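Kindly review both lines to help learners:
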Amino acid sequence: MAGIRSLFGGGAKPGADADFPIKKTEAEWKAKLEPESYYVLREHGTERAGTSPLDREKRAGTFICAGCERKLFASGAKFDSGTGWPSFFDPLPGAVATSEDSKFFMKRVEVHCADCGGHLGHVFEDGPKPTGMRYCMNGASMKFAPDGAA
């Protein structure tokens, strides 16, 4: 995947020892997050396709990390990929990091929040212009902040 860069070098998996600005114990994460968000963000899980209301979100605003509230994606970068997961063609600058994911006998590029290291989803090179990328994210890993909300 020539267009995807690993920010962890050598495909290292982010984890408790990764150097992210926001650090919490697993007990703190469990207390802060809803069970499905914990499963996705901290255990690298995947929600069932078509279950997230964020896939159908069409208002102007910003998608933020459910773990640390880092701004991740502008609504203008969202598109309907038909996959059942919220998809974007470009993250906000510096918002995400990537690593190699070789689970399930295939190589994919995993996307993480750049601040807390939470697992967001995966990125593929089959998205629309202008980037050609499809950031296929778990809705449980994010929240939506509409423009103009206090």
Observations:
- The longest strand covers residues 96-101.
- The domain at 26-146 is CATH 2.170.150.20 (Metal Binding Protein, Guanine Nucleotide Exchange Factor; Chain A).
